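Page 37, continued from 36.
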């Protein structure tokens, strides 16, 4: 008879938080161009709109996005948007009230 180990919920939350924090650190350490592209994606922009805005080709945008997804460990645009939401939430929660 095997006994499964029950992991406390707080440990699960801590592991999820640490994984998100690690992804945030990796994303913030990417090149400024990759961060700009990622920010535009998180706002819902299409690759063609990003290329036009940043003055580069759509192929360049696509390539840099895929490099970013791979480096940060994301599955695509939706996960990138969620990650940017986390960044925004963290920034707003640490602001001093006026």
């Amino acid at each position: 008879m095997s006994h499964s180990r029950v992991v406390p919920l707080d440990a699960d939350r801590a592991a999820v938080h640490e994984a998100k924090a690690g992804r945030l650190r990796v994303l913030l350490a990417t090149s400024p161009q990759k961060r700009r592209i990622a920010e535009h994606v998180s706002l819902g922009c299409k690759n063609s709109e990003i290329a036009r805005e940043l003055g580069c080709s759509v192929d360049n945008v696509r390539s840099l996005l895929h490099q970013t997804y791979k480096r940060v460990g994301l599955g695509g645009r939706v996960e990138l948007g969620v990650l940017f939401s986390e960044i925004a939430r963290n920034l707003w929660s640490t602001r001093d009230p006026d």
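DSSP finds five helices and no strands in the chain. Flag for discussion at group meeting. The longest helix spans residues 9-28.
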